[in-house]
Amino acid sequence: MIQICEVGPRDGIQNEKKILTTEQKVELISKLIDAGIKKFEAVSFVNPKVVPQMADAEEVMKLVPKVNGVTYAGLVLSRSGLERALETSVDALHVVTATSDEFNLKNSRRTVNQAVEELTKVAEEGVAAGKKVAAVLATAFGCPFEGNVPVERVIKAAEAFLQAGATELTLADTTGMANPAQVADVVKTFKNHFGDLDLGLHFHNTRGLGLANALAGYQAGVTRFDSSIAGLGGCPFAPKAVGNVCTEDMVHMFEQMGLETGTDLDKLIETALWMEEQMGRTLDGMMMKAGEA
Amino acid sequence: MIQICEVGPRDGIQNEKKILTTEQKVELISKLIDAGIKKFEAVSFVNPKVVPQMADAEEVMKLVPKVNGVTYAGLVLSRSGLERALETSVDALHVVTATSDEFNLKNSRRTVNQAVEELTKVAEEGVAAGKKVAAVLATAFGCPFEGNVPVERVIKAAEAFLQAGATELTLADTTGMANPAQVADVVKTFKNHFGDLDLGLHFHNTRGLGLANALAGYQAGVTRFDSSIAGLGGCPFAPKAVGNVCTEDMVHMFEQMGLETGTDLDKLIETALWMEEQMGRTLDGMMMKAGEA
């Protein structure tokens, strides 16, 4: 069974210039629930001046359907984000830091060590407040400014968050630098180091390798993947880059391989096409264009 | 070492409405040779009324650079195509049939058996004339009209061509229906059945799985892949579908995995961007947009 965390409502749209209404965001989530999605990174508690698309996080969380078995995570980058998140009904906190200093300095004006220090406290407080905490380690497969990111550095950050009470770890290929051989290596190293860790993978399709990397991750034993409906998403530091791995394309791959995802591909494609109408431009997903085989 | 057969000049452009000049086609091939490509499916000897883009096959073959170590193949679908091919300097004949009747009837007005009967004779004559012959078995991973194509049927056609003197076999996923698990299975079945066969794979990225399928093929032991610069290509029977696996994206994947392709990625990307100018529209390749990591 493949577990999908839909990040379209957060990573997918956060850099889109067209600001969606709260109602559109809630409708997107509702449609995805109807298509079988059980887990969302639904909102981000970041500075609304920096990321205006995420400014209505509290409103979104008030209006999303509360459905048994569906969990909502909110992204948290700081203590003030935590305070906002704890005022909402999010089930989980996704605390995020890059694992390369240069990227992290640009993204949140801190070194990795500074971020880990602040965010492990955030994680502890989140756990104390009854929230599930997942650590998301960005640039884990490479940094657009520093290049290679040693796996030891990623492990060190992971250890700190697990010690602080995080129960999930997601390795993110923020700017699409991973390759399948590297994914297999990194997953193997993490499995050897951490044993039975709940490990997830978050890929971007920037260089066309999103699905190949997800395949390599699955072959290495990972069954939890982030993805974004219609392939929405992008990175502010890679302006020509495209988005996250596309949810319905990944579902198609795994289902064709005989693996269950618990989702309805037709409904996912319908939602992707609906999303294309909302955004008013052609989106990256392939299944929404080619249709099922 | 990964061996790439560049099919951009044939499969890539054959369905493009914008007819390229002979000079543009030759310039494309020259640029690709400069980027390290050693093998081309350069032309197609089909009815120019049906595929006007390929009408100048003889002219193209007259003008392409004759470079040591570079081989040119011409696609042949019939006896009349063979006769044309033998008047040119092509090194190899790619004889092509689909492995599903309904597709083959639409594509060349013959059943698979009828095509195999005619084309094995073509293969024999080609070999007798001193040409290398490769058999390309289309719809080998599924047919858009018939669905599943039993692997036994593909093996039967392969046997006939090998007996007729073909020394290469390429399995083609003509409309992008393959998935990585199936690719692994089919390759394994072929390797078990044929032993040391020179087996290549030809994927389309119609449903986003081109590179994941190439990865699965490589993992199963295949090292020869067709691809098309900038991801050009498409299928007349799948109008919304996109093209072949993109050469520079596949090169990037394999090179990042530490595998040699003998090509220069920068020059491939430059050629893809040049091709975009010639076609006058945005092409599908990802590396040409994102750049190297």
From TrEMBL, chains A, B:
<dbReference type="GO" id="GO:0006552">
    <property type="term" value="P:L-leucine catabolic process"/>
</dbReference>
<keyword id="KW-0479">Metal-binding</keyword>
<dbReference type="GO" id="GO:0046951">
    <property type="term" value="P:ketone body biosynthetic process"/>
</dbReference>
<feature type="domain" description="Pyruvate carboxyltransferase">
    <location>
        <begin position="2"/>
        <end position="269"/>
    </location>
</feature>
<protein>
    <submittedName>
        <fullName>Hydroxymethylglutaryl-CoA lyase</fullName>
    </submittedName>
</protein>
<dbReference type="InterPro" id="IPR000891">
    <property type="entry name" value="PYR_CT"/>
</dbReference>
<dbReference type="InterPro" id="IPR043594">
    <property type="entry name" value="HMGL"/>
</dbReference>
<comment type="similarity">
    <text>Belongs to the HMG-CoA lyase family.</text>
</comment>
<keyword id="KW-0456">Lyase</keyword>
<dbReference type="InterPro" id="IPR013785">
    <property type="entry name" value="Aldolase_TIM"/>
</dbReference>
<dbReference type="GO" id="GO:0046872">
    <property type="term" value="F:metal ion binding"/>
</dbReference>
<dbReference type="Pfam" id="PF00682">
    <property type="entry name" value="HMGL-like"/>
</dbReference>
<dbReference type="GO" id="GO:0004419">
    <property type="term" value="F:hydroxymethylglutaryl-CoA lyase activity"/>
</dbReference>
